[in-house]
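Running low. Got one?
___
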Amino acid sequence: MGLLEQINSDIKTAMKAKERDRLEALRAVKTAFTMEMTKTGAADIDNDSALKIIQRLVKQRKDSASTFTAGGREDLAEKELLELSYLEVYLPAQLSDEDLTVAVQGIITKTGASSMKDMGKVMGLASKELTGKADGKAIADKVKELLS
């Protein structure tokens, strides 16, 4: 079962259970999927594209929550974090800091990188290999740390 089918199924479940916040978050995902399918002209969306869309939505929620918290709007931040928790269920398990270090170190070794000049080369491969497993910012921070 693809992510689109899973989202559709979960929307029906949320409607029956009258879970408004969960339903709102899932509808946002479905809308993003539909927009992507319209843009590409496809009748369905592959799981890799779906994961990238969900990751983007999760990042947006995190950014919004931190902005609301900084602005003293805890009520809006809580809503964003709640929706975030409903979306994270669809993402693969995130790498721990130790696992991320090992993975990035392996990529540095594979690319032969030795300094910050090679960061672009490392980031290109790391982004491909670690998609969905770690946040892009966390990957970049780890690459900087290990190449410094």
